[in-house]
Amino acid sequence: MPTLPYDVLEHILTREWLSRSTVCSLCLVSHEFYALAGQQLYHTVHFSSRELQKSQLFFQAITADWILARNVVSLHIDTDLARISQQPHMRLLIDALPGLQMLRHLYCKSVAQCIVYDARIISYIAALPRLESIHIWSLYSPAADERLLDRLPAMKIIRIDSTSRSNFYLGGSRSLERLLSRSKDTLVKLDLSGTDLSVLDTFFDDTQYSWPKVEDLTASIMTTRTPARAFPNVRRLSLPGYRGISGNALVDPTVFPHLHQLGVSDGAWDNVSGKRDVRHLLVELAGRSFLLYLTLFNGGEVSICTGRVFLPL
């Protein structure tokens, strides 16, 4: 049967825009299609909180076939493994990690529980040679998170989600500070959702470091201007917390001078004079007038978020 040249097939079958169901169907066409499309199928793996059984089958497959495991570049596990009944699933995850030699991004919602269950997972994660992005959901065991952060190499992307039940990072974290120090020449994105970035002010002042490659910065609150010195080249800033930063600071052109995109919640920015050239402004309204923001920023694209609805102006 006539077939397309290998290079053409590879170009078609490895496109990121192919849906997961399409890739699965292509894998069933022939061995040749499977060899090409299978790489895409395992490239980015995301399991939701309701896909516990699927994640179990996945870990069994990549543990049995390390060639498959080497196709995994991004792994996102949103499944809660906190219950004792889920310990077999934790074991499958831990056993599969050493084979993920090409993994670049890791998020496991239950990584702290896995550490408590078997501390070897820390060594397995730290030994991943290409890991450059880590996402930690800080809720169950901050001490376990600290142990992991201390073993990680320099990262390009660090994301730590704190919640109302876990104020660990609200009080600062020596392990996080040490990881930031190791990552001062590599970090491009820092996301500390649920955290007041100002808790790191003393660390920023003591080290006198700057992170010149960081262009994307997220923190719930930033009550001082110190982070602007530490991250001088930020282009995208997100401050979802109420009163994330004063309007007077934001219109100061020396505060994040390269700012291009800003996301804020609707805070109290009264009596602010001056403008700032932000090309894209995203505001989550909570009842106050949007006119306050129109007086703050010049031109560009503006979006309003009310709940989960985005309304472009």
UniProtKB/TrEMBL annotation:
Residue intervals of the F-box domain: 2-47
Top-level lineage group: Eukaryota
InterPro entries for this protein: F-box-like_dom_sf (IPR036047), F-box_dom (IPR001810), LRR_dom_sf (IPR032675)
Protein name: F-box domain-containing protein
Pfam hit, one: F-box-like
SUPFAM superfamilies named in the record: F-box domain (SSF81383), RNI-like (SSF52047)
Organism: Exidia glandulosa HHB12029
Residues in the signal sequence: none
